[in-house]
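Design request, tokens follow.
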């Protein structure tokens, strides 16, 4: 995370870096894990795998919706404010009166997603042999572990660096 999150870098570049690094990786990982889960669920001998698959599908939908809100609403607003500051122009019209509300929504969604990921980890522990011995299971669990790590890193990048900087930018341009 450190190479990406330079607290002094241009906020527009930071938005781009988050999309290029974290969003792209998540958008690649989610279908792969979904396919793995579907395959395992179809051939599983235990109902816990189906429960895990259904829980993952719900988390994946949350993540996809969240990324779309960031990419289509919040990040463009941050970029527009940054451009206004750079160009010395007035605050642009945005889809919301202040960025505080959508940022707080994003932070709440981060927390909700992390809680759901924790639940996935617990559900995975309930799956017993022979499912846990299969190469497909181990591969899927490795993909889930990577997803969890990247999500948490992504959330820290936004919560600790991008969002505070965006709110400070808004105070300067408001």
């Amino acid at each position: 995370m450190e190479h990406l999150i330079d607290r002094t870098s241009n906020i527009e570049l930071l938005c781009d870096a988050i999309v290029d690094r974290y969003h792209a990786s998540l958008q690649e990982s989610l279908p792969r894990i979904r396919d793995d889960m579907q395959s395992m669920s179809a051939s599983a001998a235990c109902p816990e795998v189906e429960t895990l698959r259904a829980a993952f599908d719900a988390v994946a939908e949350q993540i996809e919706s969240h990324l779309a809100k960031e990419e289509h609403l919040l990040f463009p607003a941050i970029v527009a404010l940054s451009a206004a500051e750079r160009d010395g122009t007035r605050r642009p019209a945005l889809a919301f009166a202040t960025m505080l509300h959508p940022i707080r929504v994003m932070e709440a969604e981060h927390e909700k997603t992390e809680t759901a990921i924790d639940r996935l980890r617990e559900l995975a522990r309930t799956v017993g042999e022979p499912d846990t011995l299969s190469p497909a299971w181990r591969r899927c669990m490795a993909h889930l572990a990577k997803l969890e790590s990247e999500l948490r890193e992504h959330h820290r990048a936004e919560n600790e660096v991008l969002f505070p900087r965006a709110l400070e930018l808004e105070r300067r341009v408001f």
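Comment from the thread starter after seeing the answer: thanks! Helices lie at 11-43, 47-87, 100-126, 135-173.
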